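Batch 3, record 17
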Amino acid sequence: MESFFSFLEKRVNDCSSLLCVGLDPHVSDLPAPNADGALRFCLDLVERTAPYAAAFKPNAAFFEQFGAPGWAALERVIAAVRERSQRLGSMIPVILDAKRGDISSTADAYARSAFQTLGAHAITLSPYLGRDAVEPFLADPEKGAFLLCKTSNPGAGDLQDLALSGGEPVYVAVARLAQGWNTRDNIGLVVGATQPEALARVRQAAPGMWILAPGVGAQGGDLETALKAGLRADGRGLLLPVSRALSRAANPARAAAELRDRIISIQYQRTK
Amino acid sequence: MESFFSFLEKRVNDCSSLLCVGLDPHVSDLPAPNADGALRFCLDLVERTAPYAAAFKPNAAFFEQFGAPGWAALERVIAAVRERSQRLGSMIPVILDAKRGDISSTADAYARSAFQTLGAHAITLSPYLGRDAVEPFLADPEKGAFLLCKTSNPGAGDLQDLALSGGEPVYVAVARLAQGWNTRDNIGLVVGATQPEALARVRQAAPGMWILAPGVGAQGGDLETALKAGLRADGRGLLLPVSRALSRAANPARAAAELRDRIISIQYQRTK
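Prediction for the assembled complex:
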């Protein structure tokens, strides 16, 4: 049985890409302001960008806002990634961006929802409730979880930057905890690409872990700075979610290919 | 315009109860293991326990695990609380237990999902992302948010108990932050009833805030200890979620009435 991250690494090998295509059906971007519009928007983006995607990351909120039909659309989008992967001959992992976090039987139900009902391969989670709240998502090593560590929003520091008695900020302690919990190679971290110092600090605290680093593009994070701060020593270990920069491009496939190639050139510079 | 907590206080006056009836359709408790079973289970519990409920708290995970039909069932359960409230002549708030937490437009979408699509009056949230991630849920003062502060699970301390440089644990800092953000009387806290010392400490840090204190009953929290540690000086300010102790009782209405009366007697002892 392979672990979630060996599955992801296989895909990264196949497509030479660290790009994570965000499926964020913002109402203002849709052909129609409903679940069907969200579905069509996402199916189109999956079809066009799949060859360049190390992973797809549908954002649960943008489906959930449409109620039951939104939830049905989310299921169909994930199924479409599976079908598109089969045509490509290379399975593309789906990371459900849901930022869940709850205890015992409730966590079991969320894990069932993400991995069985929806068919996602990984999920984003809040670390606030501690290890036993994360465990239900890790039981199957083929499924993964990315724990929020340092987020890219203005108020991220309110809690995450509080200094602990040893001097470290809370988010570094979260990175260390997550690294200790990662006994099955299926835990990653979420660190905003907008904060390269934090990215470098987390990389130092958790040298081997995969980091999902949102914020390049729309949120203003610089690609090169983020890559230099967050790549692992082997030039990998960083997934870069991009959404609007692709969906709003005149040619999303070309925009994804170009972004992949820019990342490759920075990886190459760094490791040569 | 009234605030969420003045709405809740009005209901507490009407029913003399601090009981929050948890709507947790565990698969093993359902007449059928599907969304329809979850719906029937919840409708029955709403019908029977409404006269004694200060609030209802549906747990999103147990609906979400059934996919789109589960989401449709959740909408119908919340609508049923509204109808039952009308028959009672006293509106009962619905607190969606969803523990969401995300940034900017994603937080907007979750708020829309909870308050508009589903029709809930309040939601539980993770505090990990800071103030701007909570703001979208507070914009309408009639809607409320309960922030996770100290949870009732075994691993709660992994992050929440870390000592800050000033000596306080993280969860006390969260209570203070939340109190500072509560400018519209619509933020509460979640503190497990299983940890009376933590409850007392949060009550001291946030003397006026409402606390949702799960863990009485199934999780082993003692009712009297929790009430003594967590009630406000006015003998209120604490909501006690109970779920299986009611749904599994031979007569859920009687079990709810008895629990309400036990709470009243403890409130009375404390304030006399």
